[in-house]
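Record minuted for everyone:
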Amino acid sequence: MPLLLAASPLLVAPTASAATHPSGSVAPTAFDRHACTRTSSGSCIRGGQLCPKSKYHKSGWDAKGRRYVCKGSRTHPHWMKP
């Protein structure tokens, strides 16, 4: 028996997030910005604060979207600029 393949036309509609600038680069979306990393008390991290040992060498973001890395002493690590 011959095998018949049915072609199903799949059309993908362009999305608003795929909009481009006149220069040809892709426009930034709301997903490009990270949510702030929360402390155990629920506030956003700040540079210089102690970070949990479980976050050692991991990144976190403050309320303004700046990136920090948990580094320094393994026993008392702090959020520091990369």
Observations:
- The chain has no helices and three strands.
